[in-house]
Amino acid sequence: MTGAAQNTLRVNTAAARHQQLTRELRQARADASTWQDRLRQAEVQARQDPLTGLLNRAALTARADAALRQPGARLAFGLMDLNRFRFLNDAFGHPVGDELLRELAARLRQLARRHHLPALARMGGDEFLLLVDDDDRIRELLKRYLSQAGARV
Q1: Separation of alpha carbons 61 and 58, rounded Å
Q2: What's the whole-number mean pLDDT along residues 52-76?
Q3: Which H or E element spans position 126?
Q4: I want to staple 76 with a disulfide (CB 3.0 to 4.6 A). Which of 10, 121, 135, 144 is the partner?
C-alpha cells in the first residue's frame, strides 16, 4: 500500500469514526433530554396529587415547614372533609366522584389565588387542606367559601 493510499485510508477511517461519534453524541443528548424530562415529571408527580393537580401531603408538609422557619411565622390550617362522599361514589360511580373532586379543587384553587394563600393541598380521598398565614383569617375564609357553596358551616 502506498503512502497516499494509507493517508486516504486513515482519513476515511477518521471520517467514519467521526460520523459514528457524532451519531453517538446525538443519541446521548436525546437520551439525556428524555431522562431530564422524566426526572422533571417524576419531581412533579412526587409533589402533586394526580387527580386534582393540587399539592399532595408531602409537598404541603415541605411548604409548611419552610413557612414556619420564617421569623414570626404564624400558620393556620383549614381542613375540609366531604361528608358522605363515599355514598356519592357508590351511587354514581368513581368517574362522577372524581369529577366532583376536580371541580372542588378548581374552586378552592380560585379561592387560594384570590386570597393569596400560601398553600392548598389534597390530603387524600375527600380531604382538602388550606394553609393560611393568619389563624383569624382561616375562619373567615372557610365560612365564606362554605356558605357560598351551600354547605353547612
Answers
A1: 5
A2: 90
A3: none
A4: 135
Backbone angles phi, psi at 124, to 5 degrees: 140, 150
Q: What percent of the chain shows pLDDT beyond 70?
A: 90
Q: Which residues are catalytic?
A: 126
Q: pLDDT digit string (tens) for 6-35?
A: 767 677 788 888 889 889 989 988 888 888
Which residues 6+ apart lie within 8 Å of 50 measured at CB? Answer: none
pTM (predicted TM-score): 0.68
Buried b (16+ CB within 10 A) or exposed e, 78-115: bebebeebeeebeeeeeeebeebbeebbeebeebbeee
Pairwise CA distance, residues 84 & 115, whole Å = 28
Residue 53's contacts (CB-CB under 8 Å, 6 or more residues apart) are 105
Q: Are 122 and 71 in contact (CB under 8 A)?
A: no
What pLDDT digit, counting tens, does each position of 96-108 carry?
999 999 998 998 8
